[in-house]
From TrEMBL:
Function: The beta chain is an electron transfer unit containing 4 cysteine clusters involved in the formation of iron-sulfur centers.
Database matches in SUPFAM superfamilies: 4Fe-4S ferredoxins
A Pfam family per the record: Form-deh_trans
Sites where the protein binds [4Fe-4S] cluster 4: C119, C140, C143, C146
Region feature (Disordered): 290-315
Protein name: Formate dehydrogenase iron-sulfur subunit
GO cellular component: plasma membrane
InterPro entries referenced in this protein's UniProt entry, alphabetically: 4Fe4S_Fe-S-bd, 4Fe4S_Fe_S_CS, FDH_Electron_Transfer_Unit, Formate_DH_bsu_Proteobacteria, Formate_DH_C_sf, Formate_DH_Fe-S_su, Formate_DH_TM
Domain 4Fe-4S ferredoxin-type, first and last residues per copy: 27-55, 98-130, 131-160
PANTHER family assigned to the protein according to its UniProt record, in alphabetical order: FORMATE DEHYDROGENASE, NITRATE-INDUCIBLE, IRON-SULFUR SUBUNIT
Organism for this UniProt entry: Kushneria konosiri
Length: 315
């Protein structure tokens, strides 16, 4: 639910944001992938709460369904079978073990959102003081620039209305003090929600626990390249986030977006400024443009051409 006084950033807008609520606490969702059993209760709860109805998918021989995020599936479970170093267990002779890594995919609610940076439609993407990045479909023009700008490949354009959609972090629920629907539905408590500070403290505790149990590379995924995120993961293989269905190791806003906003825009503004100044300079040095007299056009004494032109204009 859009509440303009909670907005700290709007796409394609340079006006300063209201600061009356700069005391708002930043929130975060913490997903501990080491506790996830892949039941998809969160996926169902998301569709239920947000009133989304995606197509019934087909079996592709894997548990992923749907196979990708869509405009009607804002979160999907990603299943990856990978070989990892042996941790615990009895078979210490083996060099590798087969691991099934499950990750809940969806918008990361970046502190520096590439989608918002790239969007050319004023107010189509907003960021609230609590860190949630939300799409205002009324202002979306369906250009898809948000997809180019997102380092996590999250937004999807709907074929029905050509608008862009993604997880809202249940901003409507959070606004009234409720936790997101996926958090509420998770049976293993693998998804938690609270202030970012509290979630970081919990994540740290869990990482220490995992390290004690042999997962030496366990860590918190809160990538600095996008200023940190308001959806964080606890990963047992934090040194290789790519194992979790291609989670980027060091996500950053694409240089193309940086070029569009950082170089092209100031250059275009400068060209505009120079053109306006040149026009003004011409005006004060040469004066306003004046219509030439008939004498200047036809020369002194050229009555024949002057008369024929007057005849042309006579009704
Ligand atoms: S994950 Fe992508 S869509 Fe979500 S806030 Fe970050 S840039 Fe935007
Ligand atoms: S926070 Fe809400 S919108 Fe986002 S994945 Fe969870 S249920 Fe869906």
């Amino acid at each position: 639910m859009i509440n303009s006084q909670n907005i700290v950033a709007r796409s394609a807008t340079t006006l300063p944001a209201p600061q009356a609520r700069d005391n708002v606490v930043e929130v975060a969702k913490l997903i501990d992938v080491s506790k996830c059993i892949g039941c998809k209760a969160c996926q169902v709860a998301c569709m239920e709460w947000n009133d989304l109805r995606d197509d019934v998918g087909e079996c592709h021989g894997v548990y992923d369904n749907p196979m990708d995020l869509t405009a009607e599936s804002w979160t999907v479970m990603r299943f990856s079978e990978v070989e990892t170093e042996v941790v615990g267990g009895n078979d210490v002779s083996a060099e590798k073990q087969l691991s099934w890594l499950i990750r809940k995919d969806g918008c990361m609610h970046c502190a520096e959102p590439g989608c918002l940076e790239a969007c050319p439609a004023p107010g189509a993407i907003v960021q609230y003081a609590n860190g949630i990045v939300d799409f205002d479909s009324n202002n979306c023009i369906g250009c898809g620039y948000c997809i180019t700008g997102c380092p996590f490949n999250i937004p999807r354009i709907s074929e029905k209305d050509s608008k862009s959609y993604k997880c809202t972090l249940c901003s409507d629920r959070v606004n009234v003090g409720l936790e997101p629907a996926c958090v509420k539905a998770c049976p293993t408590n693998c998804i938690e929600f609270g202030s970012k500070q509290d979630m970081l403290a919990r994540a740290e505790k869990r990482v220490n626990d995992l390290k004690e149990r042999g997962y030496e590379q366990a860590g918190i995924y809160d990538p600095a390249g996008v200023g940190g995120t308001h959806v964080m993961y606890v990963l047992h293989h934090h040194d290789e986030p790519g194992l979790y269905h291609g989670l980027p190791k060091d996500p950053r806003i694409s240089p193309v977006v940086g070029a569009w906003k950082g170089i092209t825009k100031p250059i275009m503004s400068a060209i505009l400024g120079i053109t306006a100044f040149a026009g003004f300079f011409h005006y004060i040095t040469k004066g306003p443009k004046e219509e030439p007299t008939d004498e200047e056009v036809f020369g002194e004494g050229d009555d024949h051409h002057r008369d024929s032109r007057e005849e042309e204009h006579r009704p």
